[in-house]
Structure formats: C-alpha cells, structure tokens
Design a protein that fits this description.
single chain, 140 residues, mainly alpha, two-stranded antiparallel sheet, globular, metal ion binding
Length: 140
C-alpha cells in the first residue's frame, strides 16, 4: 500500500515531494477557480470513459512512485475524503457525506495505516476500549 510504504515519522514538509506537491497545486490554482473547475470537468469526462476498461494492475505514476491502478485510485479517494473534511472545516460548514463504499474504503485504509504506524493493539483499544487507550491514534 502506497501510504504504508516507508511509514515512519511524519515527512518534513520542506522535503522534495511535499514541496513539489505544493508547487503543482499553486500552479494549477493560479488560473483561478473557473479554470480549475473546467480542468476537473475535462479530466472527469476522460476518466469516465477510460477507467472502466483499464486493468486494476495497470502501472500509474504518482510523484516518485509507480502504483497499480487500484492502489492509485484508493490513494486519491483517501485524499479526496480527507481534504473534503479539511475544506468544510476551513469554511465552517458541515462536512458533506460520502458514499458508503467510499467511506468504508477510506476507513479501512486509514485503519491499516494507523495499525502499521502504531501497532494493532493500540488501534484496537482506541476504537473499542477508550479506557485502555494509550493516547490518540492517527494514520498521518
């Protein structure tokens, strides 16, 4: 799993990959919200026709990694759901719900990452036995 690869301390936000992510985001946002929305709509239209016929093990480049398509889509889904919440909180509105299948996939992925990062027992206790939890558990 892409998110679990090399799980350790949180990355330094001044490292090459986080810097590149911010640079690309700033470049894509430079044209304003209308240009960004048009690019999103165009990408969605392309993917709507192409994705159903692509094999799930098709290699996809994501920054410095190459992932099978199914893992790439899972990472994008996690990012979308997490940042949907970030955006809603920043706008001081309720976080919109996501489809149950997406919520389940994201919860499963984040739980697995947290278990790799913290160990199974602390995650299980945080979820099921608050009185025995040793502290907060987070995937990232």
């Amino acid at each position: 799993m892409y998110f679990v690869a090399g799980v350790g301390p949180a990355p330094d936000l001044d490292d090459a990959v986080p810097l590149r992510i911010r640079e690309v985001g700033e470049q894509e946002a430079a044209g304003g919200p209308d240009v960004l929305a048009e690019a999103f709509d165009a990408a969605r239209a392309r993917l709507t026709t192409r994705l159903p016929s692509m094999p799930l093990d098709r290699p996809v480049g994501v920054f410095t990694h190459v992932l099978p398509l199914d893992q790439c889509l899972l990472t994008r889904l996690v990012e979308l759901v997490v940042h949907l919440d970030d955006l809603a909180v920043s706008l001081e509105i309720l976080t919109p719900s996501v489809p149950a299948e997406a919520a389940e996939a994201v919860a499963d992925c984040l739980t697995r990452i947290a278990a790799v990062r913290h160990g199974f027992l602390p995650v299980m206790r945080a979820l099921a036995r608050r009185e025995r939890a040793t502290g907060p558990i987070a995937a990232f």
